[in-house]
């Protein structure tokens, strides 16, 4: 899925998953859902082909390295043709389980820790 298609499908939302997002299968048969992050980058969550345990790929689809040039702002950095730059996390099922409590608190409060519990 390209950025233009994702953006057109998400036109009703500023960022994130549309109310009815579409999960598609990769050419190798793994489920993948794409969405737009807060900065307009196309991201995805995808089942991994890892054979030893269940895992997912999660993050931006294309990393765009940039440097801030004084007086010019952010400029893309040329990357060697044979360089590998990854912007997606490879998370096991257990890692996701371990992150869920913190993500749930953030979803409910906007903070990584529950401010109500911190005051107690």
How is this structure best summarized?
By secondary structure, this protein is an alpha+beta fold. 24% of the residues lie in helices and 28% in strands.
Tell me about this structure:
The model has no long low-confidence stretch (mean pLDDT 86). The longest helix has 17 residues, at 93-109. The strands form 2 sheets. The chain has a 5-stranded antiparallel beta sheet with strand order 1-2-3-4-7. By secondary structure, the protein is α+β, with helices and mostly antiparallel strands. Helices cover 24% and strands 28% of the residues.
Number of helices: 3
Segments where pLDDT lies below 50 for 5+ residues? none
Determine the fraction of residues in helical runs and give it as a percent range: 10-25%
Mean pLDDT: 86
Total beta strand runs: 7
Largest sheet: 5 strands, antiparallel
- The coarse overall form would be extended
Adjacency order of strands in the biggest sheet:
1-2-3-4-7
SSE class:
alpha+beta
